[in-house]
Amino acid sequence: MPHDHHDHDDDHALLPPDPALRVKALETLLTRKGLIDPAALDEIIETYAHKVGPRNGAQVVAKAWSDPAFKERLLDDATSVCADLGFYGRQGEHLVAVENTAEQHNIVVCTLCSCYPWPLLGIPPGWYKSDAYRARVVREPRAVLADFGVQLPDGQAVRVWDSTAEIRYLVVPQRPEGTDGLDEAALADLVTRDSMIGCGLANTP
Amino acid sequence: MSRVHDMGGRYGDGRVKPDPEDGPVFERDWHARALAVTLAAGALGQWSLDTSRHARERLSPKDYTRFSYYEKWMAGLANLLVANGVVSRDELAGGPPEPSPLSARRLPADRVAGVLASGGPSLREGPEPRFQPGARVRTRKPAGNAQVPGGHTRLPGYAAGAVGTVILRHGCHVLPDANAHGFGEQPEPLYTVVFDAADLWSQPERAGDEVTCDLWESYLEPAS
């Protein structure tokens, strides 16, 4: 039977203990060996710091709120619908959109690590990756929602999606009251990151 | 059977502390560098995503618990670099760097956008699915890799041995249990299975609430 260990499981302990220095040491070593290009690192950071983030997902949600036929296609095949809008790529190759309704509220987690739909929401916030969220939300989602100041009506069931494969989930929050006259851009402004994970609700105008 | 990362349902972690919606994407500069170094090193093609996930999971429980998120990434990456012969222990300890034959595979800045935008889909051709939507299925128990003791798997411990209902089928996907350990992709049908909270937890928070997991066919058997 194959083994799942080798002689030096603690190779990382050879690096400096301070986290910032650890990263610097690895970056310097790999750069000097010709294995990474520091300019490529800057480009990766620029992408996720400024280009790819939750405003992408908000556009998708606003479109779903505005256009029932689009929403139907999104709920049926989010991967191709989002790709048509230009939202595709790493950590979002297989997308599923789930809709919050008066009967069901959806929440997304990755209990085993930190899976998240990067092309739609960017890099996950700290709390999404925290032990407390990963450990608790599958067992007591309503108590976790209370940490976010959210209380659901008694009649609304909760479904927690533990994203354990490469399928990444987008929550389509309920459209807020009083938004009948708003166009897609104005609607997108009401869509928060947390509402697309299911730990918040969309803002009201 | 499980490792420290498999924490779904665990007690004792305290409250969740939300971050502001408009907070920075990277709280510290080194967080951003850690993410970028990890992606750029991954682009050398010496390991799969499944292998790198497993490298983080198999940090010692003590390290996994005390490390912050990106510290886990850095420790996992350092271990992977040595295990795959990309860097030596001497180099990691600060010794003089040797040239690497892999430098021809270095990700240049002008290819970053293309690589990030093209992703790495796990969908493959494979066998027809055995279960229909609506089928009642029981998950493997104990949870764990069927071939490698302590190996990678995507069946969380809390869902082991539970009976649920297939609600979605996703085609065939690379089996992480095999791919993480260099056994090839072995694609299998992938399903979303929904469980009633009362079938997972001794004191469910509310009757009728549910949890879903994405599970490969070999994790499942028919339940009637």
TrEMBL record, chain A:
Molecular-function GO term, any one: nitrile hydratase activity
Keywords recorded for this protein, A-Z: Lyase, Metal-binding
Keyword flag Metal-binding: yes
Record keyword Transmembrane present: no
EC number annotated for this UniProt entry: 4.2.1.84
EC top class named in words: lyase
Highest taxon of the lineage: Bacteria
SUPFAM superfamilies in alphabetical order: Nitrile hydratase alpha chain (SSF56209)
Residues covered by the Nitrile hydratase alpha/Thiocyanate hydrolase gamma domain: 19-199
Catalytic activity of the protein: an aliphatic primary amide = an aliphatic nitrile + H2O
Cited NCBIfam families: nitrile_alph
Protein family membership: Belongs to the nitrile hydratase subunit alpha family.
Name this polypeptide is given: nitrile hydratase
Organism: Thalassococcus lentus
Automatic annotation (TrEMBL), chain B:
Enzyme Commission code(s) on record: 4.2.1.84
Top-level EC class as recorded in UniProt: lyase
Keyword Lyase carried by entry: yes
Family annotation (Pfam families): NHase_beta_C, NHase_beta_N
SUPFAM superfamilies: Electron transport accessory proteins
Source organism, top-level taxon: Bacteria
Domain Nitrile hydratase beta subunit-like N-terminal: 1-97
Alphabetical UniProt keywords: Lyase
Reactions catalysed: an aliphatic primary amide = an aliphatic nitrile + H2O
Location of the region described as Disordered in the Swiss-Prot/TrEMBL record: 1-25, 118-152
Start and end residues of each Nitrile hydratase beta subunit domain: 128-222
GO-annotated molecular function: nitrile hydratase activity
Function: NHase catalyzes the hydration of various nitrile compounds to the corresponding amides.
Family recorded in the similarity comment: Belongs to the nitrile hydratase subunit beta family.
Name by which UniProt lists this protein: Nitrile hydratase subunit beta
Natural source organism: Thalassococcus lentus
Native organism taxonomy: Bacteria, Pseudomonadati, Pseudomonadota, Alphaproteobacteria, Rhodobacterales
